[in-house]
Specification:
Helix 10 crosses helix 11 and helix 14 crosses helix 15. About 75% of the residues lie in helices and about 0% in strands. It is globular, with a radius of gyration of 22 Å. The chain is mainly α and about 400 residues long.
Length: about 400
């Protein structure tokens, strides 16, 4: 007697094959959840406490902001080693203008962002139009802006900043409901964002099916939406039970949404991926590759300046050593998040997840009392493993 296959078998098979084909994307999310669960257990529940979660967001905000810019630079086939020094230099510039010259924080912030864009343009010009390797140009930039920060501050710390400027990094969104134990505005905002993501996901999937593009199997799509929404609402609930959503989290979320849209839905986003994938082919197809690479560096400079302002506001002072080693965390976040060292591959959410993997590891190991020496060793091994998996998968394919 001939056996008939159940209707669920093809669906299950297609779901498994879809997961295999998108292992990089889902693997990062699963890794983040697993690492958080591990440290939650190892720290006896300290990791997920509202106060610690708030600190985790504040500590990693400037890394996430820079990772968005670094992702585009890496996807375009380049690297920027100067971002940490630019953070320190912009923080020093902001301190001198606000503390020494008593400028208002708004014109100061505007000047700092423009300076960041000029720095990015200067480095991008040498890389894009003179074809000097980005490693060399930005290594020089690292030294130059580290020296300029020292010169601006004259080797001393400058601060404190006005309270209005500090609120950029240490402030929280106001609660219109005036809740004492639960900031309802923050919680409702989290629920609204979760609903927007679900509706957006449904519309995107419907468009893919309408145009005959292979979409996620329904079971995987709804499971992903349910899990992601639950995590988002729970996260906002925990933050709402403390002081609510930090201002910098709103800035970060808006930037993530903008960059995700640019990379996945716009012509310039597709051209950046084409540039990193095969520059000669991109040039032959009419893409102005030099100008595109130039723009990615300007974007990186502006975001590094914004991160410098956020970091200075968090410290409430500008120090000569500010930004030291940030470039390593930012680059590591992009590679751990799935960006390819050879360019052309990488997603915004991957870079964000990579940044939080690094942040959770730093935070969790610090709570556990692991020394900075072993922390550096473990982070280095994780970065090496992430790049190894990328190269292995590429060679296998």
């Amino acid at each position: 007697m001939e056996k008939t296959s159940t209707p669920t078998a093809p669906a299950a098979k297609s779901g498994i094959s879809f997961l295999k084909n998108n292992l990089r994307e889902y693997g990062m999310l699963i890794s983040l959840v697993a690492i958080m669960a591990f440290f939650q257990y190892m720290t006896d529940g300290t990791l997920m406490q509202p106060l610690n979660l708030t600190n985790l967001v504040l500590q990693n905000s400037y890394i996430v902001i820079m990772a968005l810019g670094m992702l585009l630079v890496i996807v375009a086939g380049h690297i920027d080693l100067s971002v940490g020094s630019v953070v320190g230099f912009v923080g020093a510039l902001a301190a001198v203008l606000m503390v020494n010259y008593e400028w208002h924080y708004l014109p100061t912030a505007l000047v700092c962002l423009v300076v960041g864009g000029i720095i990015g343009a200067a480095q991008g010009y040498f890389v894009a139009f003179f074809r000097i390797p980005s490693f060399i140009v930005t290594l020089a930039g690292m030294l130059v802006f580290k020296g300029l920060a020292l010169a601006l501050l004259q080797g001393q710390s400058v601060g404190p900043f006005p309270e209005t400027f500090q609120s950029l990094s240490s402030g929280f969104i106001p609660d219109v409901f005036s809740g004492e134990t639960l900031r309802m505005t923050s919680l409702l905002l989290g629920v609204a964002v979760a609903l927007i993501l679900v509706v957006g996901g449904m519309r995107g999937r419907a468009n893919q099916q309408k145009h005959g593009i292979a979409a996620e199997p329904a079971a995987i799509f709804w499971a992903k939406m349910a899990i992601f929404s639950a995590i988002l609402v729970s996260f906002c609930y925990l933050l709402a039970s403390y002081k609510g959503l930090p201002n910098v989290l709103i800035v970060m979320a808006l930037l993530i949404a903008v960059f995700d849209f640019v990379t996945s839905r716009t012509t310039i986003g597709r051209r950046i991926y084409a540039l990193g994938g095969n520059e000669k082919a991109a040039k032959l197809s009419g893409i102005k590759t030099e100008r595109l690479a130039f723009y990615t560096f300007i974007n990186m400079g502006v975001l590094a300046a914004l991160a410098g302002l956020v970091f200075a506001a968090r410290l409430n002072t500008a120090t000569p050593k500010a930004g030291l080693g940030f470039e390593l965390d930012v680059i590591a976040a992009c590679f751990i998040g799935g960006a390819s060292a050879s360019g052309g591959v990488g997603k915004v959410m991957g870079a964000v997840i990579g940044a939080f993997i690094m942040g959770v590891m730093n935070n969790g190991m610090s709570i556990m009392g692991i020394g900075i020496d072993y922390q550096q060793i473990i982070k280095g091994l994780v970065l090496l493993a992430a790049v190894f998996v990328d190269v292995y998968n590429k060679n296998k394919g």
